Amino acid sequence: MKIRFYAGLEQFNPAFFMSSLLKFLYIEHDFEHDLKKKKRYSEPKLYDANGDLSKRWYVYFSFRKIIDGPLERYPNNIYAPQHFDKKERIEWLKTIQRNLSVLLKDGFNPYNPENKFSFNEEQQGKSIQDAFEFALTIKKNTLALTSYKGLEGRIKRFEKWLNENGFKNRLIDSVNKKVITTYLNEILIATSAKNRNNTRADISTIFSTLEQNEIITQNFVQNIPILKTNPEKNKSYSSAEESKIFTYLDKNNKLLSLYVKFISYNFLRPVEVNRITIADIDLKDKILKIKTKTGFQLKRIPQLLIDEIPDLSNYPKDAYLFGRKDFGQYWEANETSRRNDYSDYFLEVKKKFGLSKDYGLYSFRHTFITKLYNTFIKEMTPEEAESTIMSITGHTTKTALRKYLREINAYIPDDYSKYL
């Protein structure tokens, strides 16, 4: 037994054994390494600046540009919106951290240009507040003050509603079609279809601006249907009512009398009358410069109106013709406020003559355009009458003029008794 054992040892080569063992172990190590390939990324981490809200909070991670290369910190952090509070930042960043981890695990490569994905801060989306402020700033530089104030008021009310309904500090992308439809339904129930449609139009204007500036991908508000409405129109005055009102104003309120005559004789809207400055009136050439939403237009001042205008030579050129209860004044108020003041002045007249809500300053424009049209149609063909009246009233198309004439019931035929 011993002899066979020692004989076995004599045949054993220690150096060969160790060489073979090391070779086997190395092969096994390579095999295991192949099974556990290096991850190309590090798990995303959250940086909270030790709770300091004055600093930027963000998610960051590392990635291997080359498969066998080292992990390198990806240069673009994903920042939480600065206006979020502590709880909101943590929730927002944890969501980003979780979703980014899934992306990376699925093979996402932030350096691959085909991914068309970026972590730039500008592309993370704006908050509702920031998006609305941006769009309103753009519109403020393109709209007349009256139009802008109406737009701003409706958008601020919508923003307040969003804040009260769980959207405070959320991104603009969270406001979808269903959210806006819900808001519009509340407006409809509380007020009217007209106000609901106007609100829809203003929100759509803001979302179009956001789409044009690539803050949102699509303005879906324009796909929300417009509701049919039965608009209330100012009625025209009868000849007797017109005569009584003019006689009363000429005697008791020269300022309001001339204001009404600019509406009547120059066929202006009340807000256009409020825009007139002393410099806009050229009595020598009988020309009136009217400011519009998009610029200005020139209108002829009829002699009938020139005879009513007081001496303006001593008034400042940049003062308003119709000031606060006097001619030629500077007036630090917006157009809407100035127009409303004159509507309030006219309330005294409405009470004096028992006029209903269907009558107002705008009724004078309807009344005198009706007069003009019915006079023209007796002397001209319908085409000639329309062309002539367009040059006076400022309507830009015959389609718009015809629609307006239908709405105010302008054409009244002569007595047709002999045909019956």
Termini gap = 148 Å
Which ranges are low-confidence, i.e. pLDDT below 50, for 5 or more consecutive residues?
1-35
Structural class: mainly alpha
At CATH level 2, the architecture of the largest domain is Orthogonal Bundle
CATH class of the largest domain: Mainly Alpha
CATH fold-type name of the largest domain: hpI Integrase, Chain A
Whole-number total of structural domains: 4
Radius of gyration: 38 Å
What is the N-to-C succession of helices and strands?
HHEEEEEHHHHHHHHEEEHEEHHHH
CATH H-tier superfamily of the largest domain: Intergrase catalytic core
Q: What value does the average pLDDT take?
A: 84
Global outline: elongated
Output the strand order for the largest sheet: 1-2-5
- How large is the share of residues in beta strands? 5-15%
